[in-house]
Design goal:
Structural class: mainly alpha
CATH architecture of the largest domain: Up-down Bundle
CATH topology of the largest domain: Growth Hormone, Chain: A
Transmembrane segments: 41-62, 69-87, 99-121, 133-152, 158-179, 200-223, 238-256, 268-286, 292-310, 331-352, 358-378
Membrane topology: Multi-pass membrane protein
GO molecular function, one term: transmembrane transporter activity
Distance between the termini: 25 Å
Number of domains: 2
Helix content: over 70%
Domain Major facilitator superfamily (MFS) profile: 4-380
Largest sheet: none
Number of helices: 17
CATH class of the largest domain: Mainly Alpha
Order of helices and strands: HHHHHHHHHHHHHHHHH
Mean pLDDT: 85
Subcellular location: Cell membrane
Length: 406
Protein backbone atom coordinates (compact mmCIF):
# COMPACT_ATOMS: atom_id res chain seq x y z
CA UNK A 1 0.00 0.00 0.00
CA UNK A 2 1.48 3.39 -0.95
CA UNK A 3 2.03 5.54 2.13
CA UNK A 4 0.21 8.38 0.37
CA UNK A 5 -3.02 6.40 0.85
CA UNK A 6 -2.36 6.55 4.59
CA UNK A 7 -2.20 10.35 4.38
CA UNK A 8 -5.57 10.38 2.61
CA UNK A 9 -7.02 8.04 5.24
CA UNK A 10 -5.83 10.35 8.05
CA UNK A 11 -7.68 13.24 6.43
CA UNK A 12 -10.78 11.07 5.97
CA UNK A 13 -10.57 10.03 9.64
CA UNK A 14 -10.61 13.66 10.78
CA UNK A 15 -13.48 14.57 8.45
CA UNK A 16 -15.53 11.54 9.51
CA UNK A 17 -14.98 12.37 13.18
CA UNK A 18 -16.10 15.99 12.92
CA UNK A 19 -19.10 15.08 10.77
CA UNK A 20 -20.64 12.59 13.19
CA UNK A 21 -19.40 13.77 16.60
CA UNK A 22 -21.89 16.64 16.75
CA UNK A 23 -24.75 14.16 17.24
CA UNK A 24 -23.23 13.03 20.53
CA UNK A 25 -22.37 16.56 21.67
CA UNK A 26 -25.75 18.21 21.04
CA UNK A 27 -26.86 18.21 24.73
CA UNK A 28 -23.52 19.69 25.88
CA UNK A 29 -23.50 22.37 23.16
CA UNK A 30 -27.13 23.27 23.81
CA UNK A 31 -26.55 23.62 27.57
CA UNK A 32 -23.38 25.70 27.15
CA UNK A 33 -24.86 28.10 24.59
CA UNK A 34 -28.27 28.31 26.26
CA UNK A 35 -30.27 26.97 23.32
CA UNK A 36 -32.68 24.07 22.86
CA UNK A 37 -31.54 20.71 21.53
CA UNK A 38 -33.66 21.10 18.36
CA UNK A 39 -31.93 24.45 17.75
CA UNK A 40 -28.56 22.78 18.31
CA UNK A 41 -29.61 20.21 15.73
CA UNK A 42 -29.30 22.93 13.10
CA UNK A 43 -25.54 22.60 13.55
CA UNK A 44 -25.76 19.17 11.93
CA UNK A 45 -27.72 20.63 9.02
CA UNK A 46 -25.24 23.51 8.63
CA UNK A 47 -22.38 21.04 8.18
CA UNK A 48 -24.35 18.98 5.64
CA UNK A 49 -25.24 22.14 3.71
CA UNK A 50 -21.54 23.03 3.60
CA UNK A 51 -20.76 19.59 2.14
CA UNK A 52 -23.41 19.83 -0.57
CA UNK A 53 -22.37 23.34 -1.63
CA UNK A 54 -18.62 22.93 -1.15
CA UNK A 55 -18.17 19.62 -2.97
CA UNK A 56 -18.86 20.80 -6.55
CA UNK A 57 -17.95 24.45 -5.92
CA UNK A 58 -14.45 23.89 -4.55
CA UNK A 59 -13.72 21.12 -7.05
CA UNK A 60 -14.66 23.49 -9.89
CA UNK A 61 -12.73 26.48 -8.51
CA UNK A 62 -9.56 24.40 -8.06
CA UNK A 63 -9.83 22.54 -11.38
CA UNK A 64 -6.50 23.87 -12.73
CA UNK A 65 -4.51 23.41 -9.52
CA UNK A 66 -2.25 20.53 -8.60
CA UNK A 67 -4.38 17.97 -6.81
CA UNK A 68 -1.77 17.65 -4.06
CA UNK A 69 -2.01 21.40 -3.41
CA UNK A 70 -5.82 21.18 -3.48
CA UNK A 71 -5.86 18.43 -0.85
CA UNK A 72 -3.56 20.37 1.45
CA UNK A 73 -5.59 23.56 0.96
CA UNK A 74 -8.82 21.73 1.74
CA UNK A 75 -7.37 20.41 5.00
CA UNK A 76 -6.23 23.93 5.93
CA UNK A 77 -9.84 25.06 5.48
CA UNK A 78 -10.96 22.07 7.55
CA UNK A 79 -8.60 23.00 10.42
CA UNK A 80 -9.77 26.63 10.29
CA UNK A 81 -13.43 25.60 10.49
CA UNK A 82 -12.85 23.38 13.51
CA UNK A 83 -10.72 25.99 15.29
CA UNK A 84 -13.44 28.60 14.75
CA UNK A 85 -15.99 26.08 16.08
CA UNK A 86 -13.95 25.67 19.25
CA UNK A 87 -13.89 29.41 19.92
CA UNK A 88 -17.39 30.30 18.68
CA UNK A 89 -18.98 32.69 21.22
CA UNK A 90 -22.60 31.91 20.34
CA UNK A 91 -24.93 29.77 18.25
CA UNK A 92 -24.72 31.95 15.13
CA UNK A 93 -20.92 31.93 14.98
CA UNK A 94 -20.94 28.18 15.56
CA UNK A 95 -23.43 27.67 12.73
CA UNK A 96 -21.13 29.61 10.39
CA UNK A 97 -18.08 27.67 11.59
CA UNK A 98 -19.81 24.32 11.08
CA UNK A 99 -20.82 25.38 7.57
CA UNK A 100 -17.18 26.30 6.89
CA UNK A 101 -16.02 22.94 8.27
CA UNK A 102 -18.33 21.13 5.86
CA UNK A 103 -17.16 22.96 2.74
CA UNK A 104 -13.95 20.91 2.16
CA UNK A 105 -15.55 17.55 3.03
CA UNK A 106 -16.91 16.48 -0.35
CA UNK A 107 -14.09 17.99 -2.40
CA UNK A 108 -11.49 16.23 -0.25
CA UNK A 109 -13.05 12.82 -0.80
CA UNK A 110 -13.70 13.56 -4.47
CA UNK A 111 -10.21 14.80 -5.31
CA UNK A 112 -8.66 12.29 -2.90
CA UNK A 113 -10.35 9.40 -4.71
CA UNK A 114 -8.90 10.61 -8.02
CA UNK A 115 -5.43 10.88 -6.46
CA UNK A 116 -5.74 7.44 -4.83
CA UNK A 117 -6.37 5.76 -8.19
CA UNK A 118 -3.22 7.35 -9.67
CA UNK A 119 -1.04 5.80 -6.97
CA UNK A 120 -1.77 2.15 -7.78
CA UNK A 121 -1.95 -0.21 -10.75
CA UNK A 122 -5.22 -0.01 -12.76
CA UNK A 123 -6.41 -3.36 -11.43
CA UNK A 124 -6.26 -2.01 -7.83
CA UNK A 125 -8.18 1.25 -8.32
CA UNK A 126 -11.27 0.32 -6.31
CA UNK A 127 -9.12 -1.04 -3.49
CA UNK A 128 -7.20 2.23 -3.32
CA UNK A 129 -10.45 4.19 -2.99
CA UNK A 130 -11.66 1.84 -0.25
CA UNK A 131 -8.42 2.34 1.68
CA UNK A 132 -8.98 6.10 1.67
CA UNK A 133 -12.59 5.61 2.83
CA UNK A 134 -11.24 3.35 5.57
CA UNK A 135 -10.48 6.52 7.53
CA UNK A 136 -14.16 7.46 7.40
CA UNK A 137 -15.46 4.10 8.60
CA UNK A 138 -12.81 3.77 11.34
CA UNK A 139 -13.87 7.22 12.55
CA UNK A 140 -17.25 5.70 13.43
CA UNK A 141 -15.56 2.96 15.47
CA UNK A 142 -12.88 4.95 17.29
CA UNK A 143 -12.85 8.63 16.38
CA UNK A 144 -16.44 9.56 17.20
CA UNK A 145 -16.64 7.69 20.55
CA UNK A 146 -13.25 9.09 21.65
CA UNK A 147 -14.17 12.63 20.57
CA UNK A 148 -17.56 12.37 22.30
CA UNK A 149 -15.88 11.16 25.49
CA UNK A 150 -13.42 14.05 25.30
CA UNK A 151 -16.29 16.51 24.90
CA UNK A 152 -18.15 15.10 27.89
CA UNK A 153 -15.12 15.33 30.19
CA UNK A 154 -13.19 18.35 28.86
CA UNK A 155 -15.98 20.32 27.21
CA UNK A 156 -17.25 20.28 23.64
CA UNK A 157 -14.78 22.98 22.59
CA UNK A 158 -11.88 20.64 23.39
CA UNK A 159 -13.35 18.13 20.93
CA UNK A 160 -13.08 20.54 18.02
CA UNK A 161 -9.54 21.50 19.01
CA UNK A 162 -8.69 17.79 19.00
CA UNK A 163 -10.24 17.31 15.57
CA UNK A 164 -8.27 20.34 14.36
CA UNK A 165 -5.10 18.60 15.56
CA UNK A 166 -6.01 15.57 13.43
CA UNK A 167 -6.35 17.96 10.50
CA UNK A 168 -2.85 19.31 11.15
CA UNK A 169 -1.52 15.74 11.17
CA UNK A 170 -3.27 15.16 7.84
CA UNK A 171 -1.68 18.29 6.35
CA UNK A 172 1.77 17.12 7.40
CA UNK A 173 1.09 13.62 6.05
CA UNK A 174 -0.15 14.92 2.70
CA UNK A 175 2.85 17.24 2.34
CA UNK A 176 5.33 14.47 3.17
CA UNK A 177 3.77 11.41 1.54
CA UNK A 178 1.84 12.48 -1.56
CA UNK A 179 4.35 12.78 -4.42
CA UNK A 180 4.30 16.06 -6.35
CA UNK A 181 4.69 14.46 -9.77
CA UNK A 182 1.80 12.04 -9.18
CA UNK A 183 -0.81 14.79 -8.92
CA UNK A 184 -0.39 17.29 -11.77
CA UNK A 185 -3.01 19.90 -12.58
CA UNK A 186 -5.78 18.32 -14.69
CA UNK A 187 -5.57 19.16 -18.38
CA UNK A 188 -9.32 19.60 -18.78
CA UNK A 189 -9.60 22.70 -16.59
CA UNK A 190 -12.89 24.14 -15.31
CA UNK A 191 -14.72 23.93 -18.66
CA UNK A 192 -13.79 20.27 -19.10
CA UNK A 193 -14.77 19.43 -15.52
CA UNK A 194 -18.20 21.06 -15.93
CA UNK A 195 -18.68 19.35 -19.31
CA UNK A 196 -18.20 15.99 -17.58
CA UNK A 197 -21.45 16.53 -15.68
CA UNK A 198 -23.46 16.66 -18.92
CA UNK A 199 -23.06 12.91 -19.37
CA UNK A 200 -26.18 10.78 -18.78
CA UNK A 201 -24.12 7.85 -17.33
CA UNK A 202 -22.61 10.24 -14.73
CA UNK A 203 -26.07 11.38 -13.64
CA UNK A 204 -27.32 7.79 -13.48
CA UNK A 205 -24.37 6.90 -11.26
CA UNK A 206 -25.12 9.90 -9.03
CA UNK A 207 -28.78 8.86 -8.93
CA UNK A 208 -27.75 5.39 -7.78
CA UNK A 209 -25.77 6.98 -4.94
CA UNK A 210 -28.74 9.09 -3.83
CA UNK A 211 -31.17 6.15 -3.85
CA UNK A 212 -28.76 3.53 -2.48
CA UNK A 213 -27.40 5.56 0.41
CA UNK A 214 -30.80 7.18 0.93
CA UNK A 215 -31.92 3.63 1.76
CA UNK A 216 -29.20 3.42 4.40
CA UNK A 217 -30.06 6.72 6.06
CA UNK A 218 -33.81 6.09 6.01
CA UNK A 219 -33.13 3.30 8.49
CA UNK A 220 -29.94 4.48 10.24
CA UNK A 221 -31.40 7.88 11.16
CA UNK A 222 -33.95 6.09 13.35
CA UNK A 223 -31.82 3.20 14.55
CA UNK A 224 -31.92 4.34 18.21
CA UNK A 225 -35.72 4.05 18.64
CA UNK A 226 -35.61 0.73 16.79
CA UNK A 227 -33.02 -0.61 19.22
CA UNK A 228 -34.73 0.71 22.33
CA UNK A 229 -38.43 0.35 21.51
CA UNK A 230 -38.39 -2.75 19.28
CA UNK A 231 -35.32 -4.71 20.40
CA UNK A 232 -35.49 -3.73 24.09
CA UNK A 233 -32.00 -2.25 24.54
CA UNK A 234 -31.33 0.39 27.16
CA UNK A 235 -30.34 3.80 25.81
CA UNK A 236 -26.91 3.42 27.43
CA UNK A 237 -26.17 0.47 25.13
CA UNK A 238 -26.84 2.33 21.88
CA UNK A 239 -23.34 3.86 21.58
CA UNK A 240 -21.73 0.41 21.64
CA UNK A 241 -24.21 -0.89 19.09
CA UNK A 242 -23.48 2.02 16.76
CA UNK A 243 -19.81 1.03 16.95
CA UNK A 244 -20.97 -2.32 15.53
CA UNK A 245 -22.34 -0.39 12.57
CA UNK A 246 -18.87 1.12 12.11
CA UNK A 247 -17.31 -2.35 12.20
CA UNK A 248 -19.77 -3.58 9.59
CA UNK A 249 -19.14 -0.51 7.43
CA UNK A 250 -15.38 -1.07 7.61
CA UNK A 251 -15.76 -4.70 6.56
CA UNK A 252 -18.13 -3.76 3.75
CA UNK A 253 -15.85 -0.97 2.54
CA UNK A 254 -12.78 -3.23 2.33
CA UNK A 255 -14.77 -6.08 0.79
CA UNK A 256 -16.38 -3.81 -1.78
CA UNK A 257 -13.02 -2.39 -2.82
CA UNK A 258 -11.52 -5.81 -3.33
CA UNK A 259 -14.51 -7.23 -5.22
CA UNK A 260 -15.00 -4.13 -7.39
CA UNK A 261 -11.50 -4.52 -8.83
CA UNK A 262 -12.72 -7.82 -10.30
CA UNK A 263 -16.34 -6.93 -11.16
CA UNK A 264 -17.32 -3.35 -10.50
CA UNK A 265 -20.93 -3.49 -11.65
CA UNK A 266 -21.45 -6.97 -10.20
CA UNK A 267 -20.25 -5.71 -6.80
CA UNK A 268 -22.64 -2.75 -7.02
CA UNK A 269 -25.63 -4.94 -7.85
CA UNK A 270 -24.66 -7.45 -5.17
CA UNK A 271 -24.33 -4.76 -2.52
CA UNK A 272 -27.70 -3.20 -3.39
CA UNK A 273 -29.41 -6.61 -3.36
CA UNK A 274 -27.86 -7.34 0.06
CA UNK A 275 -29.09 -3.95 1.31
CA UNK A 276 -32.62 -4.70 0.10
CA UNK A 277 -32.56 -8.06 1.90
CA UNK A 278 -31.19 -6.66 5.17
CA UNK A 279 -33.67 -3.77 5.29
CA UNK A 280 -36.68 -5.99 4.49
CA UNK A 281 -35.51 -8.34 7.29
CA UNK A 282 -35.21 -5.52 9.86
CA UNK A 283 -38.71 -5.95 11.40
CA UNK A 284 -37.88 -9.61 12.11
CA UNK A 285 -34.29 -9.00 13.24
CA UNK A 286 -35.35 -6.26 15.68
CA UNK A 287 -37.39 -8.68 17.76
CA UNK A 288 -34.49 -9.88 19.93
CA UNK A 289 -31.36 -8.10 21.22
CA UNK A 290 -28.97 -10.57 19.57
CA UNK A 291 -30.50 -10.42 16.11
CA UNK A 292 -30.86 -6.63 16.39
CA UNK A 293 -27.11 -6.30 16.98
CA UNK A 294 -26.53 -8.52 13.94
CA UNK A 295 -28.87 -6.32 11.88
CA UNK A 296 -26.90 -3.17 12.76
CA UNK A 297 -23.62 -4.76 11.66
CA UNK A 298 -25.14 -6.20 8.47
CA UNK A 299 -26.63 -2.81 7.58
CA UNK A 300 -23.18 -1.20 7.68
CA UNK A 301 -21.64 -4.04 5.66
CA UNK A 302 -24.27 -4.12 2.92
CA UNK A 303 -24.40 -0.35 2.46
CA UNK A 304 -20.66 0.26 2.31
CA UNK A 305 -19.95 -2.58 -0.11
CA UNK A 306 -21.38 -0.19 -2.71
CA UNK A 307 -19.24 2.82 -1.72
CA UNK A 308 -16.07 2.14 -3.72
CA UNK A 309 -17.77 0.88 -6.91
CA UNK A 310 -20.09 3.90 -6.96
CA UNK A 311 -17.21 6.33 -6.51
CA UNK A 312 -15.11 4.60 -9.16
CA UNK A 313 -18.03 4.37 -11.57
CA UNK A 314 -18.65 8.12 -11.41
CA UNK A 315 -14.95 8.76 -12.00
CA UNK A 316 -14.82 6.42 -15.01
CA UNK A 317 -17.98 7.82 -16.57
CA UNK A 318 -16.33 11.25 -16.39
CA UNK A 319 -12.84 9.93 -17.08
CA UNK A 320 -11.59 12.98 -18.97
CA UNK A 321 -12.27 15.27 -15.99
CA UNK A 322 -13.12 13.19 -12.91
CA UNK A 323 -12.52 15.61 -10.00
CA UNK A 324 -15.78 17.54 -10.20
CA UNK A 325 -17.89 14.45 -10.86
CA UNK A 326 -16.16 12.58 -8.04
CA UNK A 327 -16.82 15.46 -5.65
CA UNK A 328 -20.42 15.67 -6.85
CA UNK A 329 -20.80 12.05 -5.74
CA UNK A 330 -20.02 13.19 -2.20
CA UNK A 331 -22.69 15.87 -2.49
CA UNK A 332 -25.06 13.13 -3.66
CA UNK A 333 -24.15 11.09 -0.57
CA UNK A 334 -25.18 13.98 1.69
CA UNK A 335 -28.38 14.55 -0.27
CA UNK A 336 -29.05 10.88 0.39
CA UNK A 337 -28.48 11.52 4.09
CA UNK A 338 -31.06 14.30 4.22
CA UNK A 339 -33.56 12.71 1.82
CA UNK A 340 -33.36 9.26 3.38
CA UNK A 341 -33.91 10.64 6.89
CA UNK A 342 -36.92 12.62 5.63
CA UNK A 343 -38.50 9.58 3.93
CA UNK A 344 -37.90 7.40 6.98
CA UNK A 345 -39.51 10.09 9.14
CA UNK A 346 -42.57 10.11 6.88
CA UNK A 347 -43.02 6.39 7.47
CA UNK A 348 -42.83 6.92 11.24
CA UNK A 349 -45.18 9.90 11.18
CA UNK A 350 -47.72 7.88 9.17
CA UNK A 351 -47.94 5.42 12.06
CA UNK A 352 -46.50 2.40 10.26
CA UNK A 353 -44.45 1.34 13.29
CA UNK A 354 -40.98 1.72 14.80
CA UNK A 355 -39.25 -0.37 12.16
CA UNK A 356 -41.11 1.17 9.21
CA UNK A 357 -38.17 3.45 8.25
CA UNK A 358 -36.22 0.29 7.38
CA UNK A 359 -38.98 -0.84 5.01
CA UNK A 360 -39.02 2.62 3.43
CA UNK A 361 -35.26 2.24 3.04
CA UNK A 362 -35.73 -1.14 1.37
CA UNK A 363 -37.97 0.48 -1.25
CA UNK A 364 -35.31 3.15 -1.85
CA UNK A 365 -32.72 0.39 -2.31
CA UNK A 366 -35.00 -1.24 -4.89
CA UNK A 367 -35.15 2.14 -6.64
CA UNK A 368 -31.35 2.25 -6.54
CA UNK A 369 -31.25 -1.16 -8.22
CA UNK A 370 -33.58 0.14 -10.90
CA UNK A 371 -31.41 3.19 -11.61
CA UNK A 372 -28.29 0.98 -11.70
CA UNK A 373 -30.05 -1.34 -14.17
CA UNK A 374 -30.91 1.60 -16.42
CA UNK A 375 -27.28 2.75 -16.26
CA UNK A 376 -26.15 -0.73 -17.27
CA UNK A 377 -28.59 -0.74 -20.21
CA UNK A 378 -27.37 2.69 -21.35
CA UNK A 379 -23.74 1.55 -21.20
CA UNK A 380 -24.56 -1.62 -23.14
CA UNK A 381 -26.42 0.32 -25.83
CA UNK A 382 -23.50 2.73 -26.23
CA UNK A 383 -21.00 -0.12 -26.45
CA UNK A 384 -23.05 -2.16 -28.94
CA UNK A 385 -24.65 0.05 -31.64
CA UNK A 386 -27.55 -0.93 -33.89
CA UNK A 387 -25.28 -2.85 -36.26
CA UNK A 388 -24.53 -5.31 -33.48
CA UNK A 389 -20.76 -4.88 -33.53
CA UNK A 390 -19.22 -3.72 -30.28
CA UNK A 391 -17.42 -0.41 -30.46
CA UNK A 392 -14.90 1.23 -28.13
CA UNK A 393 -16.10 4.41 -26.44
CA UNK A 394 -13.38 7.02 -26.12
CA UNK A 395 -12.20 7.70 -22.58
CA UNK A 396 -9.95 10.22 -20.95
CA UNK A 397 -8.07 7.34 -19.34
CA UNK A 398 -7.41 4.82 -22.11
CA UNK A 399 -8.24 1.23 -21.27
CA UNK A 400 -9.54 2.18 -17.83
CA UNK A 401 -13.00 0.86 -18.62
CA UNK A 402 -11.71 -2.34 -20.13
CA UNK A 403 -9.60 -3.16 -17.10
CA UNK A 404 -12.52 -3.06 -14.70
CA UNK A 405 -15.18 -5.55 -15.72
CA UNK A 406 -18.74 -4.28 -15.59
Amino acid sequence: MPLALLALAVGAFGIGTTEFVMMGLLPDVAADLGISIPSAGHLVSAYALGVVIGAPLLAALTARMSRRAVLIGLMVLFVAGNALSAFAPDEHYLLAARFLSGLPHGAFFGVGAVVATTLVAPERKARSVSLMFLGLTVANIAGVPAATLMGQHLGWRATFLGVGAIGLAAIASLALLVPRDATPAPAAGLRGEVAALRSLPVWLALGTTVAGFGALFAAYSYITPMLTDAAGYAETSVTLLLALFGVGATIGNLLGGRLADHAMRGTLFGGLLALVAVLFAFPLLMRTPATAALAVALLGTAAFVTGSPLQLMVMEKAAAAPSLASSANQAAFNLANAGGAWIGGLALAAGFGTTSPALAGALLAVLGLGVAAVAHAVDHRRAVPAGGRERLVASGTPTAAERVPN
